[in-house]
Design goal:
Elements lengths: L16 H10 L6 E4 L6 H8 L3 E5 L3 H8 L7 H10 L11 H7 L5 H16 L4 H13 L20 H11 L8 H12 L7 H6 L3 E3 L13 E6 L9 H4 L1 H7 L2 H5 L9 H18 E11 L1 E4 L2 E4 H6 L4 E3 L2 E12 L4 H4 L12 E9 L1
Parallel strand pairs: 1-2, 1-4, 2-3, 4-5
Antiparallel strand pairs: 5-10, 6-7, 8-9, 9-10
């Protein structure tokens, strides 16, 4: 799949081959619109655009919202290079406060902190600059990781660990943050991500996109306006999105918003099922007659027992919805092969973790 999908690592995201499979299977209208109600890093929206279709990316998280919007128009590499060269990141110390500096000190050299802060400030002051937004998106992916291509000392790439944990890691490994030039690393990453040309339809299709921040049970969409839904809802209480993304939230200036988010994180299966029933009724409302929804879940352990969530969802169908009713069509299961990154979570193929993409497909009629 196109490297643009992997600009930013995002925990609990599915691979782009999954929405691509269902787009090719179910979408045949030229002006179709595809929705992901739990948009995350934007995999469904981006793949829809790559296939020439408009998309609706919905997510309560302002981080996820930025990940989607920052790729609504992807500039040519030459434009990005020219814009990057205009940025004066290292000419002066930044306006970063003492408390923020102390939080970042375990991760970055002093000069790198000031460069990151200067870029952050430029982006926040020029939110409508699409080239700068894409540069900021790339910087977001370089904040922390385990190689010289990241701004930080050795850290974890997918989640933002806490400062005290990073201090312990530094002491254990005998590490001290060294200076990492920000612009150089952004440029190298952008070149990799855009090494494969985008097709001519991408920016045209993406110009039709909408970016929402709604409760998935109450979407700001017209009844019957969506051709296909491909989404992956939260799996009970498996991921702490606020804590895992604190540094990204800091860089985007949305930490206060993250603290107030009513994210759907459930400890009990029955709570999750009630939430998903209400969400599926809303998905059915926005689907056009004949449209399909694909809900990707996995196998989880609840109260000591293995639970297949797609079966729990299927057991609630059929349901009456505005404009018709929804009924289960099929269950599609993809056996995953995990990568080295997944193994960092002590996940091994077919023994631990979520080993399958388990997709419930339902249709409105």
């Amino acid at each position: 799949m196109h490297p643009i999908h992997y600009t930013v690592s995002y925990r609990a995201s599915f691979k782009p081959e999954l929405p691509d499979f269902f787009i090719q299977k179910f979408v045949n209208r030229k002006n179709a619109m595809i929705l992901d109600p739990f948009g995350g890093r934007g995999t469904t929206a981006i793949q829809s655009n790559l296939n020439g279709f408009g998309a609706v990316h919905n997510d309560l998280s302002p981080i996820a919202g930025f990940l989607g919007r920052a790729r609504r128009r992807i500039p040519e590499l030459a434009e990005l290079k020219a814009r990057l060269e205009t940025l004066e990141l290292d000419s002066r110390k930044s306006s970063i406060g003492a408390e923020e500096f102390r939080r970042l000190e375990p991760f970055f050299h002093e000069r790198t902190i000031h460069e990151i802060q200067n870029l952050k400030q430029m982006h926040l002051e020029n939110a409508d600059d699409t080239a700068l937004s894409y540069i900021a998106l790339t910087a977001l992916s370089r904040l922390h990781g385990h190689s010289d291509g990241f701004f930080s000392v050795y850290s974890f790439p997918q989640i933002s660990i806490m400062p005290d944990a990073q201090r312990r890691n530094n002491a254990k490994r005998g590490l001290v943050p060294v200076y990492k030039e920000v612009k150089e690393r952004i440029w190298k990453k952008m070149k990799r991500d855009l090494s494969q040309p985008l097709n001519n339809d991408f920016n045209r299709a993406a110009s039709r996109n909408r970016y929402l921040a709604c409760d998935a049970r109450s979407l700001d969409l017209d009844t019957g306006s969506i051709d296909l839904i491909v989404t992956s809802p939260p799996f009970l209480d498996k991921v702490d999105y606020k804590k895992d993304n604190w540094m990204r939230a800091w860089f985007l200036g949305v930490e206060d918003q993250m603290d107030d988010l009513p994210l759907a994180i459930f400890a009990r299966l029955e709570q999750w099922k009630q939430f998903m029933k209400e969400a599926m009724i809303e998905f059915g409302r926005v689907l056009r007659p004949g449209g399909h929804a694909v809900i990707e879940v996995g196998e989880v352990v609840s109260s000591g027992e293995m639970v297949f969530l797609e079966r729990e969802l299927a057991s609630m169908l059929p349901l009456q919805v505005e404009g018709g009713h929804i009924r289960a069509v099929e269950i599609c299961i993809n056996q995953q092969e995990f990568t080295k990154l997944a193994n960092c979570w002590k996940v091994t193929n077919n023994s631990r973790g979520t080993n399958t993409n388990r997709c419930l497909v339902f249709q409105k009629s």
